[in-house]
Amino acid sequence: MTTDTPFPIDLEKGSDYYWCSCGKSKNQPFCDGSHKGSDFSPKKFTAVKTETAYLCGCKKTSNSPFCDGSHNNVKLPVEEKIFSALVQPDNREIDITEEESILIASLRNNISHLSACGGTGKCSTCRIEILDGLENCHPRGELEERLAQKLSFPSNIRLGCQTKLTGNISFRRLLLDKRDADLNNQITEQKLESVGTIRNLTILFCDIKGFTPFSESLSAYDVIFILNRYFSIMREVIIRHGGEVNNYIGDAVMAIFGLKESRQQSLRAVSASVEMLKEMDQFKSYLKKAYGRDFDIRVGVHYGEVISGSVGSGDDRKLTVIGDAVNIASRIEAINKEAGTRLLISETVYDQVKDKISVRNYLRLKLRGTSNLITLHEVSDINIGALDLNVTEVERTIEGKVWFRTLPIVELNLGEKKKYILNEKEILLINEGEVYAIENLCPHMDLPLDIGQITDKATILCPYHKSEFCFKSGEVKKWVGKRPEEYEGECKPLNTISVQKHEDYIWVQMLNT
Ligand code: FES
Ligand code: FES
């Protein structure tokens, strides 16, 4: 044992140990305690629990000769291994530690490596082609394997955010045309952050049936007037049910439920759909009277995983959602046409609302572009009293502290981290068995951490200048690539936020409350 290297030992609860430096026992740094009185008096202690303790000579802790094995005056037990990667087409050689993903190392080296989902293995924008040294890449994990199979990646196409190294490699970034780079530069000009957040939301599509023949016989002014009136009726129903109209596509409406209020999101979407059909029935009789003709609507609802984020450029940027779930909702709406129905919901929606609705029929079919059979349910009505539209508690005071509701627990899977905006402050929620929350700001230069990598040592690596923090305690593990004591008083801990789970939600106690 040197004076500055902690020595891990396994202790058994209740056993006596004699620590000394006699050098006589085979069981260093322990002896049998039999040579009391010599220059090397052993120090006896009784283990109070079964654990790994750390002996060291730092003498900085109150219970010397023990320390916690991670104090700042010891050298890291094993020196960090650093590999090199030649990045194409940038033609740059960068360093990558054994702990970092390729994505984090690229970003730290100012390479415009795209990462739309924030490094969570869900978008594939960080994909790279390994040109040399595939054997030096860790095998694919479960997340990467799933995406690789879905997109039929050959073995040398890897996700930068999921791949760590055991040796040197060379690779080519694959998403990098001028537009990609410009877009990424716009995004990264001031700060790097994830482009979207993965959410489980309910998507409603509503389209008009028979609008073309209806509109052909009217003046353009009439058509615009009727459309505006129709949109305002439907929008009002959607908003009253806590949904948001996200897009008008020609005469179709796309609405999202669950963005701000997750509770009963699918039930609210189905209830809104039922009411939209009832409103349409009334609107039809108005149209018939005023114009001698009418049209009808078709609605499709689906619940699933989407990426929500800002899309567009310059002033046109707006919040939207993209992903398979959106496409499926749109296809479900279109199936009404062949099925002769008005309102169809997917199985994922049905499972959440089946006790609260009446269904007329169901159908099994393959959606265009997919090979799996799915079941759709035709909804006829929603049960009276099923919906609680007053589920709006987002803040509560417990023992004098104010807690805020964030994501539903089911939306933060094990191993995931998600950004959440609360009272204009960004926080990061991390599920590593327990849920933790931190402010989305690296204390080094107040830059966002959401693209940072979570390590298996319960730390987060900042993508900018190689700082590392414990996300449980906020402790600085590395500050700008070095041990914190080398910077003396300069290091600032990460702001951690208290978390509790309550009524299926993650609640946080914001700083300064
Ligand atoms: S998969 Fe999205 S950044 Fe890697
Ligand atoms: S902002 Fe510099 S290390 Fe995080």
Helix and strand content put the structural class at alpha+beta
**CATH architectural arrangement of the largest domain:** 2-Layer Sandwich
Bound molecules: FE2/S2 (inorganic) cluster
Instruction: Determine the fraction of residues in helical runs and give it as a percent range.
Output: 10-25%
Q: How many individual helices?
A: 8
- Which segments are poorly predicted (pLDDT under 50) over 5 or more consecutive residues? 71-77, 184-191
Can you describe what's shown?
- A hairpin with a 5-residue loop joins strand 27 (468-470) and strand 28 (476-478).
- The strands form six sheets. Strands 12, 13, 14, 15, 16, 17, 18 and 19 form an eight-stranded mixed beta sheet that branches.
- The chain is built from eight helices and 30 strands.
- Helix 5 (220-240) packs antiparallel against helix 6.
- With 513 residues, it is α+β, with helices and mostly antiparallel strands.
- It folds into four domains: 7-67, no CATH class; 82-190, Roll (Ubiquitin-like (UB roll)), CATH 3.10.20.30; 199-382, Nucleotide cyclase, GGDEF domain (Alpha-Beta Plaits, 2-Layer Sandwich); 395-509, Rieske Iron-sulfur Protein.
- Mean pLDDT is 82; it is low at 71-77 and 184-191.
- One FE2/S2 (inorganic) cluster (FES) is lined by residues 115-117, 119, 121-126, 159, 161.
- One FE2/S2 (inorganic) cluster is lined by residues 115-117, 119, 121-126, 159, 161.
